[in-house]
Amino acid sequence: MTFARGGARSPQMTSRWLAVYLDVICAIFVTVVAFGALTLAETLNPGKIGLVLSLALTLTLTGMFQCCVRQSIEAENMMISVERGIEYTECEKEALWEYNFQPPPAWPHRGVIDSYNVNFRYSLDEPLVMKDLIPCIFSSEKVGIVGRTGAGKSSLIAALLRLSEPEGRILIDDIWTTEIGLHDLRKKMTVAPQEPVLFTGTMRKNLDPFNEHMDVELWKVLEEVQLKEAIEGLPGKMNAELAESGLNLSSGQRELVCLARAILRENRILIIDKATSNVDPRTDELIQKTIHEKFAQCTVLTITHSLSNVIDCTQIMVLDSGRLEEDDEPFVLLQNRDSLFYKKVQQLGEVEAAAFIERAKQVHTERK
After folding, report:
1. Where in the chain are the domains?
2. 3 state DSSP class of 54
3. DSSP 8-class letter at 111
4. For residue 179, what is the DSSP state?
5. For FRET with 356, which of 98, 182, 191, 316 sits at 20 to 30 Å CA-CA?
6. Phi/psi at 105 (nearest 5 deg)?
7. What is the spatial distance between Cα 31 and Cα 273, in angstroms, rounded to a whole number?
8. Between the CA of residue 21 and those of 15, 18, 32, 34, 107, what are the distances in Å?
9. Is residue 287 within 8 Å of residue 257, measured between CB atoms?
């Protein structure tokens, strides 16, 4: 608690230190001027010397020097926003939101994703973060994407959404992603990010930003994610105002709101990017159960560090240094003791690894 109070006072202490420091500089300045005037007393008019000393004292004692310094610092800080604005105008522009060719309204109806020698980098002056990726994801497959930090898991999603234009081509349900506008592409894929995205506004706006659904549908989906009682307890219920980033909700509730929004979108491709890494085990279990029930006919890409979230997946993609090193069913990968996936499972510990392998075998048998 002592450290917290000290941290809260640090800006005030810094301001006081600056004031004392400037006062010392002013005192030194007045001293130098005074001694300089004494040395030049024989050549200068005493009236001029008095005027110099008077102006020096006025400058320092009235705080004009401190005011000028503080104003110059504030002006420099304010100019940072101008510099950022200029920098943003020079950023590389994204592709057009809409092209002349538009996909059918029901696209994608299967959720098949094919990639051909995809290389990806976030800017032209940066190295490749994904190299020669050639995954094939079939309709309704549940794909787990694993790998160490920096292996390129999130970069795969960035390439799908064209956050930066990838080299190579990506095909979704027989349509190249580069042949359609960004709006047509991105609105057809639902993303559940690690940090839940909520907007300042009502609960209704956060669930249905484009007013495409009736209240009955909104309450139904809230009930499915077990949020109905919590929302009914808010003042205004569905019209309750959410704070910035949904700070008046818990972390688990924010994730469930994003999950409810994903269910309402009814897209055939769902991308989960470490969405359950900041929630408690009970909420994690609820989210996983809801995904298996509500997105059974959808293609689901799950990026996670928790292997328990991908044990039921039909396909595991193991990335390393931006390359696809392994791609197969979990149980098949576990049969190879030299595989990266097997080594990653062994890091869980002897008991947990054995339970994980047994669960993978059970899922494999049931699927057959």
Report:
1. 13-89, 113-328
2. helix
3. -
4. G
5. 191
6. -60, -30
7. 64
8. 10, 5, 17, 20, 67
9. no
The CATH architecture one would assign to domain 113-328 is: 3-Layer(aba) Sandwich (3.40)
User: What does the DSSP assignment read for 193-245?
Assistant: -SS----SEEHHHHH-TT--S-HHHHHHHHHHTT-HHHHHTSTTGGGPEE-GG
Write down the residue that tokens 């002592």 correspond to.
2
What are the tens digits of pLDDT across the range 287-332? Answer: 888 888 888 888 999 888 878 888 888 899 998 888 888 888 988 9
| Token pair of 217 as six digits | 């549908």
The larger pLDDT score, comparing residue 277 to residue 111, is at: 111
Pairing of strands 136-137, 113-120: antiparallel
Q: How far from 81 is each of 77, 88, 157, CA to CA, in Å?
A: 8, 10, 30
Give tens-digit pLDDT for 142-155.
Answer: 899 998 888 888 88
Q: Where are the alpha helices (DSSP H) in the chain?
A: 2-39, 46-61, 64-89, 153-160, 182-186, 203-207, 215-224, 228-232, 251-265, 281-294, 330-334, 340-346, 350-367
Sign of CA dihedral 352, 358, 364, 367: negative
Mean pLDDT of 162-184: 88
Phi/psi class of residue 367: alpha, beta or left (left: φ > 0; alpha: ψ in -120 to 50)?
alpha
Residue with tokens 């005493």: 46
Parallel, antiparallel or unpaired: strands 241-242 and 130-133: unpaired
DSSP code for 109: S
Contacts of 175 (CB under 8 A, 6+ apart): 103, 107, 108
